[in-house]
Amino acid sequence: MSKDSPNAMWGGRFAEGPDAIMEAINASIGFDQRLAGHDIRGSRAHAAMLAAQGIISDSDAQAIREGLLTVLSEIESGEFDFSTALEDIHMNVEARLKEIVGEPAGRLHTARSRNDQVATDFRMWVRDQLDALDGALAGLSRALLAQAEAGADWVMPGFTHLQVAQPVTWGHHLLAYVEMFARDRSRFSDARARMNECPLGAAALAGTSFPIDREMTSEALGFDRPCANSIDAVSDRDFAMEFLSAASICAVHLSRLAEELVIWSTAQFRFVEMSDRFSTGSSIMPQKRNPDAAELVRAKSGRVLGATVSLFTVMKGLPLTYSKDMQEDKEQVFDAADSLMLAIAAMEGIVRDMCANVAELEAAAAAGFSTATDLADWLVRERGMPFREAHRVTGSLVALAESKRCGLPALSMEDMASVYTDMDEGVFDVLEPKRSVASRTSLGGTAPVRVREEIARWKEVLG
Ligand code: ARG
Q1: Residues near 24 by Cβ (< 8 Å), separated by ≥ 6?
Q2: Is the pTM of this model over 0.85?
Q3: Contact predicate 216/52, CB 8 Å
Q4: CB contact at 8 A, 183 and 300
Q5: Residue 422 contacts by C-beta under 8 Å, 6 or more apart in sequence?
Q6: Which residues line the pocket of ligand 1, CB cutoff 6 A?
Q7: Which range is most confident: 247-251, 275-279, 418-422?
């Protein structure tokens, strides 16, 4: 198409073609070509419906449906020549269809608008992403589960404020992430169920006077039902915002795990070693092993959150129904979906490959007076002391150990008695991290017996 002539699709009332800058700001073909498969699927369903309803002839519908398959194969093989002058994927496909099948192509857009078309394409695209993300998160969860099973009873420090709190088990800590990713999957599946309504047939905004069958296209495209309100159908981007919201929460979970792995792999912690396959070296410092993959997972969450803020901001001031602002929904969602998929895949690899340093975990579990709560609990249980009093006595014992630069188990009986006279040797048993974790058998607690039950439950769920 010549740049100076009006647009062939909508230029009837125009005398001049668009300015080059207008074309540049208006075109979405640079990114929405990713919707080609969904666009063609939607158009084929629409053509079949138009024929079934007697709106176009069967032979026109057949020519359109076959021609669209040719267009699809040209796009898939990379030979399709995308045109910026044709703005977007919808008009690129239709223009090429016209070249292939001639006049019938002009009938495809009957009882349809790009407004319901793009809403339908994009919903289908997001729906596919939700399905792919579900599978990816299941894979990551299985990798975490395998690690948890290997170390169901390895002790490590549990932290609050990143200060040693109480000993926990490695399996228990990793299962915390399995819980988070299961919630992410459930959020994705809720979003999928809510968004699975078909906008096609809403036309520009008001519906159409043609006797269309919206149930037919909805079903052909795998939707549960047509959207009930044509105005809502073309102006709604909740499905994209909900996708991004759920994606953001998932990205935050990934980022927290990534952050822990970055910390754990330092020379100061040495809790885990990442595989060569997911680490990099330094071009100047020969000793380096950098956790780049985990760092990038952490950073990708910033992109996902950014996309979310961006789309919400685009949408928040828009009057009903469609405004061209809404064309800016796609790049955000594409980028967020790509970033999240890559982050999950990388995290699965990191987790599968990583090696826990069990001796280091155990040593760290004993440091930092991690069993002070166990000592206080012993005073409550064995001496009938009120917990607040036991807390105070234990605090004094910690202060004493600190002044002697030793741990609680290294205090002598005399040291203990100097703070509280009624101690006995039994107290030393509860100062062992392994004993500590084994004692925490409350529902959801860190005891290896509980952790093994949870592993069995998750194995059932994840298969
Ligand atoms: N490329 C457009 C988009 O992505 C398609 C819809 C155009 N609709 C319109 N009324 N100009 O939003």
Answers
A1: 84
A2: yes
A3: yes
A4: no
A5: 383
A6: 28, 32, 88, 114-115, 118, 322, 324, 326-327
A7: 247-251
